[in-house]
Design goal:
The protein has one helix and eight strands; from the N terminus they run αββββββββ. The protein is mostly beta strands and 206 residues long. It has one domain.
Length: 206
């Protein structure tokens, strides 16, 4: 009897630890929606320290801007450098977002899918702070080497920036730290928690 109770206690502890991670992780995976006054990351926003993955078969974006920036993790005064992309309006086809929310002894991946039919997922006033971006990109009327402060008041004077009227990215694979949008419409939303053996291979890309 005592062994059974101990197993239940340990199992309950693991699930409680997962729940603590899963709530913020689910919010991140869903693309935290905040209205931002000037499109820049607010100074009082801190990130979770967990990166999340975003994939799409195609992204169509109007009003693209990109420049360097930093984010801060809760309790860590050391800034993390990131690339910041702003998109005025984005259509994302076959959108996938995933976050690895595993704890010791409990593999867990939270995965969201949207925009898989004829109607893509859409975002207006979108901002992404990312570690990396991969895919095939085509830019329309691109300007490379702008002073970043001409693109965002929050950027550092003299830092590198670029912009484009339109961008198309196919095979999008992005590792991000933070996402905001004025509106984020997830058409055909599907969210699932994959745990234990079912978690293997469930991130959007390896």
């Amino acid at each position: 009897m005592k062994d059974s109770e101990d197993r239940q206690l340990r199992g309950g502890t693991r699930w409680r630890r997962f729940a603590v991670l899963a709530v913020p992780a689910a919010a991140v995976a869903g693309g935290i929606v905040f209205g931002m006054a000037n499109g820049a990351i607010a100074a009082n926003i801190t990130v979770s320290g967990k990166a999340f993955k975003v994939g799409a078969t195609r992204l169509e974006g109007d009003g693209f801007k990109q420049y360097g920036g930093v984010v801060y993790e809760k309790g860590n005064p050391v800034p993390r450098p990131v690339a910041i992309s702003e998109i005025g309006h984005a259509d994302l086809y076959n959108l996938c977002q995933s976050v690895n929310a595993s704890v010791p002894g409990l593999p867990v991946v939270l995965r969201i899918e949207a925009g898989g039919g004829r109607q893509p997922a859409t975002a207006d006033g979108m901002l992404i702070a990312m570690d990396s971006l991969a895919g095939d990109a085509t830019f329309t009327k691109i300007k490379i080497g702008q002073d970043a402060t001409d693109l965002s008041a929050a950027a550092q004077e003299g830092s590198f920036g670029q912009s484009s009227e339109h961008v198309t990215i196919t095979g999008l694979e992005q590792v991000a730290r933070y996402t905001t949008a004025g509106t984020f419409k997830l058409t055909g939303l599907k969210l699932k928690v994959h745990a234990f053996g079912d978690a293997a291979g469930k991130e959007c890309f390896s």
